[in-house]
Structure to design on (289 residues):
């Protein structure tokens, strides 16, 4: 399961902005400021199809903001990005999800007062607006609903949540909510999944299971981009790591490249990381998304 056992990035130089052989996502000149603060300033970034890529960096580096911009939950000040060759600027989150790029949130968005199944069905394609049409085309609508329910059951089974399908999402543990969040994201059958801190607040017993789910998605051909602070997780499953600091990509490479990169050690990992193999000293407080 370790990204290091197969080099999916063979021949790619560990240089910020480096071109990839088969990029699914290409970001150019994406900038976003809040008042006088430049939160994101990414000159060029490519994400290789079919890999697990980690986006790491200190608190406030701009990781969540970049996720929000690319997935249509915030607007860029300038810049463009393409997903599978299609420019996504200006599209909202639902449209972008329909293009095949979905994301999860740092603080899970599971609706606590709906059941697990209801949460899944809400994430299904065609949930917004199409119900009105559905009232005129009821048989098709019912067929769609049945297909959505079947897919939801399949995914809940995969994520070991099927037994909980009629329970309120609010009754799930933190880790189970993360699993539900992943299952929900998969309802639209995406090509790429972006996970914002999938391990935050997860009981260690479930971390391994989440890791296996993430690597399984990659092994089935999906592209995974994830933000995470846990260095063991990052180094263990990533094919490639992108390091953001003050909104800019300061390094990218394989885990072995990143571990040895002096700029990354200075900006994020801290001296002593290499010897101890420990997590960097960072506050992972979830004050915002
Ligand atoms: N809506 C907002 N309004 C004002 N400032 C914001 C907003 N969102 C983010 N910021 C600021 O932009 C910078 C980047 O924040 P962002 O949340 O993207 O960082 P991050 O790398 O995801 O951090 P963390 O690891 O703590 O989640 C921070 O200085 C943050 O305070």
């Amino acid at each position: 399961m370790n990204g290091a056992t197969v080099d999916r990035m063979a021949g790619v130089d560990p240089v910020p902005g480096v071109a990839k052989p088969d990029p699914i996502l290409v970001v150019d000149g994406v900038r976003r400021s809040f008042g006088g603060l430049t939160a994101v300033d990414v000159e060029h970034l490519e994400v290789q199809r079919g890999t697990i890529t980690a986006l790491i960096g200190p608190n406030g580096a701009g990781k969540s903001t970049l996720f929000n911009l690319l997935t249509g939950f915030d607007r860029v000040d300038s810049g463009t990005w393409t997903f599978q060759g299609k420019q996504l600027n200006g599209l909202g989150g639902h449209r972008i999800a329909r293009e095949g790029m979905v994301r999860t949130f740092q603080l899970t968005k599971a609706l606590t007062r709906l059941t697990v199944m209801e949460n899944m069905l809400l994430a299904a394609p065609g949930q917004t607006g199409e119900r009105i049409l559905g009232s005129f085309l009821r048989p098709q609508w019912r067929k769609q609903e049945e297909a959505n329910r079947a897919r939801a059951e399949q995914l809940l089974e995969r994520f070991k949540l099927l037994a909980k399908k009629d329970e309120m999402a609010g009754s799930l543990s933190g880790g189970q909510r993360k699993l539900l969040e992943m299952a929900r994201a998969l309802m639209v059958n995406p090509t790429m999944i972006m996970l914002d801190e999938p391990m935050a607040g997860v009981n260690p017993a479930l971390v391994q299971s989440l890791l296996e789910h993430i690597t399984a998605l990659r092994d089935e051909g999906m592209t995974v981009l994830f933000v995470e602070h846990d260095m063991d997780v990052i180094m263990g499953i990533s094919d490639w790591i992108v390091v953001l600091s003050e909104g800019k990509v300061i390094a990218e490479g394989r885990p072995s490249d990143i571990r040895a990169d002096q700029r990354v050690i200075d900006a994020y990992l801290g001296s002593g990381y290499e010897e101890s193999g420990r997590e960097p000293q960072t506050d992972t407080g979830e004050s915002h998304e």
Notes: The longest helix spans residues 138-158. Residues 3-110+189-276 form a domain with the Rossmann fold fold (CATH 3.40.50.300). Residues 281-289 have pLDDT under 50 and may be disordered.
